[in-house]
Amino acid sequence: MRGHTFCWHRSLPDWVHQTVTPKNAEAVLTAHISTVASHYRGLISAWDVVNEAIQLEDGQPDGLRNSFWYQMLGPRYLDIAFKAAHKADPDALLCYNDYGLEKDTHYGESKRTAVLALLRGLKQRGILIHGLGIQSHLRAGDTFGPGLSHFILAVRDMGLSIHITELDVDDSHFTGSIADRDGSVAATYKRYLDVVLATRSVSTVITWGVWDSPHVAGATASNGPLAQRALAFGPRGEVKPASRVIAHCFENAQTQKDARF
Fold it and tell me: Same domain, yes or no, for 252 and 150?
């Protein structure tokens, strides 16, 4: 089971904003992580310790998001969070998790560069981190280039594992039939999984749900239409094109792995 997440810029309770100050922020953050991680110790195999710490548009050094914890503690909140997580659950894999890393666009490349710098900085400071979570909220029709493979391999070469953590395919912009949606969603899954699994460096693939229901996919604006056919199975758990494509991608990756031995 994967745990998500100790430290995020959203969904903070009101009392945090009302009572936490730069003087007590480290103690509050540490206590929160220690309490949750200790409660689930031995049950969670991996934690997303910090989620979405990069926001290039905020204009902060190293591309860091100007989040609540950044405002209270500066960039050292990352170190505090990872240290607290390891102390509370020494056997769990500790990951950094983020979105917007999947496409070979200018934004995607810039964010990859910032994430690599974040990971490198943690390791250089002696902070224990085991892996990177790539959220993978895709949009139907997306294509993926060699930069994604190079990025995954660069993370692997740091000694970190790579986890696909929130995989779905947003079809909210489609107006066609269910068959058209399913075809485009399945093709997008295939293009993405073919690239990431070919690196032979991805240890985990987790979808953002199991079966379809109208929901806000990761790439969908909160005031926009809902995704309808974004996940691996239909609304009653029925097999659909995405189901078969995902299974085929896993089988093909396993066949390639077996052929190496």
Answer: yes
